[in-house]
């Protein structure tokens, strides 16, 4: 036990390296996670952008926060898939027979999700810059944006862990992400909620994506953030804590 505790972080590093190798060997996953949000961004900016009234001359500035959330929501579905495959193939049982900390196997998937989604976010921002995205934000607002995106990724990754550990099939492990990917479309990510019907607007204004998008948008544009950032943080932290508890229960029960 002492040896396990002593080498906890080195064990986690091994598990992280294993997960990252799986990701980089699966180029179809990388392409899907990165290309799909970029395709959405190109479509909405160059095809629909001229017909969408957002009160800003640079639609890509308005659109980018929602695209980043879609990219993260798409990326975490593969975390659920890889967890499901590890469980089905008995990989966890093999590692349990070794003198390593058991939780590092799960944390390896979680941290690899953070790293891979961070790479996708950086690539999408670079493409947005080529499309005309500009930000007047300084270093601290950018760090705040990075922190919000990190919390959002962690929250969804623990939700993905529940799906990956509890699903009965591969399709079930990744199907949970579809509603999450769809949420930005019923928010202020693409158009202001003022233009929506009353019932739809009520839902859009009070779901987590809208507050997160508005907080990121205000930070990147150098505008006052107001209460949006606190609502966004509350949603992210709340979802993360609840999902973590249920994910650990599912982990202990399954393996």
Automatic annotation (TrEMBL):
It is a multi-pass membrane protein. InterPro entries: ABC2_TM, ABC2_TM_bact-type, ABC_2_transport, Nod_factor_ABC_transporter. GO terms for molecular function: ABC-type transporter activity. The chain crosses the membrane at residues 27-48, 60-85, 106-133, 139-163, 175-193, 229-247. Keywords: Cell membrane, Membrane, Transmembrane, Transmembrane helix, Transport. This is Transport permease protein. Its main location: membrane. Signal peptide: none annotated. One of its GO terms (cellular component) is ATP-binding cassette (ABC) transporter complex. Belongs to the ABC-2 integral membrane protein family. It comes from Paenibacillus rhizosphaerae. It is found in: Cell membrane; Membrane. Residues 28-254 form the ABC transmembrane type-2 domain.
């Amino acid at each position: 036990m002492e040896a396990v505790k002593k080498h906890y972080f080195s064990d986690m590093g091994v598990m992280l390296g294993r997960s990252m190798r799986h990701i980089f060997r699966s180029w179809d996953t990388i392409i899907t996670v990165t290309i799909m949000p970029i395709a959405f961004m190109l479509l909405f900016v160059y095809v629909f952008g001229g017909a969408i009234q957002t009160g800003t001359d640079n639609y890509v500035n308005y659109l980018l926060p929602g695209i980043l959330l879609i990219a993260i929501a798409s990326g975490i579905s593969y975390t659920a898939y890889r967890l499901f495959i590890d469980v089905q193939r008995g990989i966890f049982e093999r590692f349990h027979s070794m003198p390593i900390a058991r939780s590092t196997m799960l944390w390896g998937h979680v941290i690899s999700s953070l790293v891979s989604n961070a790479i996708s976010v950086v690539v999408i921002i670079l493409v947005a810059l080529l499309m005309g995205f500009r930000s007047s934000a300084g270093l601290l607002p950018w760090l705040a944006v990075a922190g919000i995106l990190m919390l959002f990724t962690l929250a969804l990754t623990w939700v993905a862990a529940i799906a990956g550990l509890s699903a009965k099939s591969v399709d079930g492990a990744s199907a949970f992400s579809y509603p999450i990917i769809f949420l930005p479309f019923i928010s202020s990510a693409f158009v202001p909620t003022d233009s929506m019907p009353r019932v739809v607007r009520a839902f859009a204004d009070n779901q987590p994506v809208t507050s997160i998008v508005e907080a990121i948008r205000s930070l990147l544009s150098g505008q006052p953030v107001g209460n949006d950032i606190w609502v966004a943080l509350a949603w992210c932290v709340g979802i993360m804590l609840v999902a973590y508890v249920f994910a650990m229960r599912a982990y202990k029960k399954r393996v």
